[in-house]
Amino acid sequence: MLIKKGIPASPGICIANAFLLDTEAYQIPEHRVEPKDITREINRFSEAVEDAINSFSEIRNRLSPNLREKTDPIIGSHILMLQDKHLHEQIIKLIRENKYLPEYAVTLTFKKYAKALISADDAFFTSRVQDIYDIERKLLQKLLKAKSDELSDLKNDVVVVAHDLTPSQTLLLDRNKVKGFATDAGGTTSHTAIIARSIGIPAVVGLNTITLDISGGDTIIIDGNSGVVIINPDSDTIKKYSAKERNFVVYERQLLAESKKLPAETKDGHLINLYVNIDLPEEVPAAVKHGAAGIGLLRTEFFYPSIEKLPSELEQLEVFKKIIRQLDDREIVIRTLDLGADKLPIDGQSTEQNPYLGCRAIRFSLRHIDLFKTQLRAILRASDFGNVSIMFPMISAMEELIKAKAILSDVQNELRKEKIPFDPDVKIGIMIEVPSAAIIADILIKEVDFFSIGTNDLIQYTLAVDRGNERVAPLYQPTNPAVLRLIKKVIEVGEENGKMVAMCGEMSGSVIYTVLLLGLGLKVFSMAPIVVPEIKKVIRSVSMEEARQIAKRTLEFPDAQSAANYLIDYTKQIIPQLF
Ligand code: PEP
Ligand code: MG
User: Fold this and answer.
1) What crossing angle do the helices spanning 481-496 and 560-574 adopt, rounded to 10°?
2) How many angstroms separate the alpha carbon of residue 457 from the centre of ligand 1?
3) Rounded Cα distance, 196 and 204, in Å
4) Are residues 171 and 92 both part of a single domain?
5) Any idea which ligand is nearest the CA of 504?
6) Active-site residue among 31, 78, 191, 290?
7) 359 an active-site residue?
8) Reading across the β-sheet that carries 203-205, which strands appear in turn?
9) C-alpha 454 to ligand 1 mean position (Å)
10) In terms of CB atoms within 10 Å, which end of the chain has fewer, N or C?
11) How many Å apart are CA 482 and CA 459, to the nearest integer?
12) Residue among 170, 189, 362 to mutate when testing ligand 1 (max atoms within 8 A of CB)
C-alpha cells in the first residue's frame, strides 16, 4: 500500500482500477510478485509476447504494398526479436528468480539491450536503439492492456491516471466509466481539474510521480476532498474508504435535497444568482438538477477537437440549440473560443515558447477571422432560440474589444441581409482575466453590458504563477492582496456603472471565498454544478452586513495565507459540517 498526497482538485471519493494513460512515456517502477503468482505472471508475459507479435503483423498487413516493402525489414526484425528464445529466457528468469513483475522484468531487459547497443559506439547499432524501445513499448502496452484499452471504449469502471490530460483525451473519455482522475501535473485550476469538477468526479492533481508509482492492475483510491491517493490499499483501508464514499454520497444528496427548493439568499434577504460553468451539452442536466439559475460560462473550445474537424456554423448552432432547449429560458453566456495555452487542440499552435502569453483566446480569434465569424454567426443564430449573451475571453486592451465588436457587428449585418433571425439586443460581455483589463475596467465597461471575472487566469497573470504547474501551486493564491484589490475594483466599477459583474473562475465555487466575495459586492457566481448546494448553504448562513465586515477585514491582511486562514476559520465557524 502506498499513500500519496497531492492537490485536491474535485471533491468525492472513489475506488477503482487504475487506467494508466501514455504508458509508453514512463518508466515502470520495481514491483515484485507473490511466489504463488509466478506461474500466472509468466503466462501473462507469454500472452503479451503473442499479442505484440500479432499487433506488429497487423500493422504490416494494413500498410499499402509500397510501404510494406519498405518497412518489412524493420517490422520483420521486431517480430524476430519478440520470438527470440534467449530473450524470453532472460525475462522469465527475472520473474521466477527475482520475483519481478513482468512489466519490470521487460523494462530491465530491454534497458540492458539498449545500453549494449549504445556502448557499441557504432552508428548502425546506435540507430537500432529506437527499435529496441519500440518493441519494449509494444510489449509493455500489451502487458498493461487492461489499462490501455481505448479510452472511449472502457469495459469497467476506472480511475484515469495520467501525466496530464489533454482536452482531446478528455473528450474521448467514457464519462460513465471514468470514476476519478489522478495526475502528475496540474493545479486546482488546470483544465483537468476543471473538467473533473464539471463532470462531478473526484480528482487529485499535482501528484508528481503517480504515473511511475502505479503498475498493471493496481487498485487505487482517490480522495478528492483531502488530496490523498492510495495505491493497492489493504482490505481495512478499502473498508474505511468505502464507508467514506457512501457517507459523502449521502451527504451530497442531502445537501442537494435541502437546498434545491431554497433561494440563494443571505440571512438579511439579499438574493444572489448562482450560475454554472459547462463545457458540453451532456453537462446541462446536472446543472439543472443542482438548481442553477443559468449558465454563466459555456466554454466552446471543447467543440474543436482538431483543426481538421472544425465545426460548421450549423453544427455549432445545433449544439447551442440542444443546450438551450434544456434550459427553459434560463440565461446562457456563450464564450467565444479560448484556444491556446493549456487548451491546445489545434495543431501547430503548440510550438509557441510561452503559450499563456501567446496567441490565445481573443487573440487567436482575431487572427482567424473566418473561424471567429462562423462561431459568432452560430451564437447569434442561437440567440433567436433562448436567452443568450456573448462573451469574449482574455481581453487585455481596448483595441481587442473594439475589433471583436466590429467583427460581431459585421456578422450581425450579414445575418440581417440574409434575413436570418437573431436577437438584436443580445448582451455583450468580456472576461476580466488579465490584470490590465481589471485596471482599465472603468474604460472597458463603457463598451460592454457585463463583466465576468475569470480568476483562474487573473490569479496566474497577476502573480506570474502558471495555473497548471504543480511546482508553483503553493504560490497560486486567490487571497493575495493584489488579486483581491483587482477583484474589488472590478466589482465596484460594475456597481458604479449599473452593469452586471459575475465571477466564473473557480474561486467563485470554493466555499472559503464565498463570504468574502459576497462582502465585496459580487451578485452573480458561476461554478461547477456539484458545488452549487454548498455555496448556497454558505450564502444562506450569513448576512450581507457580516459579509461586508469579513471582506473589509480580509483586505487588511498583508499576505495571502493569513487572509486564507481567516476565511477558513470564519467559514468553519458558520458551517462546520462543510469541513
Ligand atoms: C478563468 O480564467 O477564470 C476562466 C473561467 O476561464 P478558463 O478557466 O476557461 O481559462
Ligand atoms: Mg480563463
Assistant:
1) 70
2) 6
3) 9
4) no
5) 1
6) 191
7) no
8) 2-5, 228-231, 219-223, 13-20, 158-162, 178-183, 203-205, 7-10
9) 5
10) C
11) 9
12) 189
The CATH code of the domain that includes 46 is 1.10.274.10
Classify strands 7-10 and 450-453 as parallel, antiparallel or unpaired. unpaired
Does ligand 1 lie within 6 Å of residue 188's CB atom?
A: no
Give the pLDDT score at 167: 58
Is 322 part of a structural domain of the chain? yes
Q: Is the CB of 336 under 6 A from ligand 1?
A: no
pLDDT of 386-403, one tens digit each?
999 999 999 999 999 999
Cα(179)–Cα(159) distance, rounded to whole angstroms? 5
The catalytically annotated residue of 31, 78, 368, 504 is: 504
Same domain, residue pair 305 and 401: yes
In a domain, 436, yes or no: no
Q: What CATH number did the domain enclosing 525 receive?
A: 3.20.20.60
The pLDDT score that the predictor gives to residue 23 is 47
Is the pLDDT reported for residue 71 higher than 70?
no
Which bound ligand lies closest to the C-alpha atom of 277? 1
Mean pLDDT within 146-172: 69
Do 420 and 355 fall within a single domain? yes
Give the number of the atom of ligand 1 that is nearest the alpha carbon of residue 361. Answer: 10
% of residues, the chain, pLDDT over 90: 62
| 440, 443, 448, 449 alpha-carbon torsion, rounded to 10° | 90
The reported pLDDT for the residue numbered 146 is 44
Q: Specify whether the CB–CB gap between 333 and 297 falls below 8 A.
A: yes
Q: How confident is the model at residue 149 (pLDDT cuts 50, 70, 90)?
A: very low
Residue nearest to atom 9 of ligand 1 (CA): 299
The verdict on 536 and 559 lying in the same domain is: yes
Atom of ligand 1 at shortest distance to CA of 191?
A: 8
If one counts the domains in the chain, the total is 3
Contact 335 CB / ligand 1 (< 6 Å) = no
468 within 8 A of 190, measured Cβ to Cβ: yes
Which residue puts its alpha carbon closest to atom 7 of ligand 1? 456
414 and 280 belong to one structural domain: yes
90 with 208, same domain: the answer is: no
Are both 337 and 398 inside the same structural domain?
A: yes
Answer whether residue 576 shows pLDDT above 70.
Answer: yes
Amino acid (one-letter) located at 369: I
pLDDT, position 72: 74
Of 110, 144, 178, the domain-final residue: 144
Per residue in 218-258, pLDDT (tens digit) is 899 999 999 999 999 999 999 999 999 999 999 888 988 98
44 Cβ inside 6 Å of ligand 1: no
Q: Is the C-beta atom of 342 inside 6 A of ligand 1? A: no
Q: Residue 467 domain-assigned?
A: no
* CB of residue 454 inside a 6 A radius of ligand 1: yes
Quick: pLDDT tens for 254-282.
Answer: 988 988 889 999 999 999 999 999 988 88
Residues 569/579, Cβ–Cβ less than 8 Å: no
- 29 assigned to some structural domain: no
Establish whether residue 456 lines the binding site of ligand 1, counting it when its CB lies within 6 angstroms of any ligand atom: yes
Q: Model's pTM, two decimal places?
A: 0.76
Which pLDDT score, from 0 to 100, does residue 126 have?
66
Is 14 catalytic? The answer is no
CA 243 to chain centre: 27
Residue pair 301/338 in contact (Cβ under 8 Å)? The answer is: yes
| Band of pLDDT at residue 191, cut at 50, 70 and 90 | confident
- If asked whether residues 42 and 188 sit together in one domain, one would say no
Query: Residue 9 maps to which CATH number?
Result: 3.50.30.10
pLDDT bucket at 429, cuts 50 / 70 / 90 = very high
Would you say the CB of residue 455 lies under 6 angstroms from ligand 1? yes
Domain interval for residue 272: 253-429+504-578
pLDDT above 70 covers a percentage of the chain that reads 90
The rounded Å distance from CA 233 to ligand 1 centre is 36
